[in-house]
Amino acid sequence: MNYAQILATPETATDHQIQQNQLNLHTALPAKVVSFDPAKQTVSLAIQIKMQLVDGSGADIPPLLDVPVSFPRGGGFAVTFPLKADDEGIAIFSERCIDGWWQNGSASTPLDFRLHDLSDAMFIPGICSVPKAISGFFTEGLSMQTLDGGTYIRVKNGSILIKGNIEHQGDTSQKGSHSSTGVISSDTDVTAGGISGKYHKHTGDSGGKTGVPE
């Protein structure tokens, strides 16, 4: 009995063709950064799932180049951070060719007939493997931090916690009291109750107690 003839029905042939086509239909794959271009906000990526060959072995997918990166942005605001080699995330693959839109920033007819192709990847950083999970995860609110937790801004109900040195440019207006366990200094002047700390004068300074500053 020839099993090949029995199995080679139109239905099985169609199923086989569908399976073959699915092998070239890309949706999303984990990836890590090889290099980052901050001017274009693109990365070169190494896909972290290998192609499976007929003999069961694996082969690396070629590196993906000039992949646009997703940074939170909108309404005239953006959150940015530098990406480094080995940073993990997920590469998603567009349904159609994105070249025209990416180069011109406007609606575009696809410049190629390819579908779900590796050439049309976009990268969302942050999704990671277990070995690269964030240690000491802050569970009480929102945290913007270094991965080691040494510097952070954390927001939780009723309070904001900041750890690290702060360099501020601009005026500061505060309602409420201020206390410090360290030194408060100024390169110019400090005014308290409308009186200059640097230029105030005391009356009655000819020995004994002076008057109040003015």
From TrEMBL:
Q: Where is the Phage protein Gp138 N-terminal domain?
A: 29-126
> Where is composition skewed (Gly residues) in this entry?
205-214
Composition skew (Polar residues), residue ranges:
171-187
The segment annotated Disordered runs over 168-187, 193-214
Check the record and name the Gene3D superfamilies matching this protein.
Answer: Gp5 N-terminal domain (2.40.50.230)
Superkingdom of the source species: Bacteria
Question: What is the protein named?
Answer: Phage protein Gp138 N-terminal domain-containing protein
Q: Which organism is it from?
A: Haemophilus influenzae
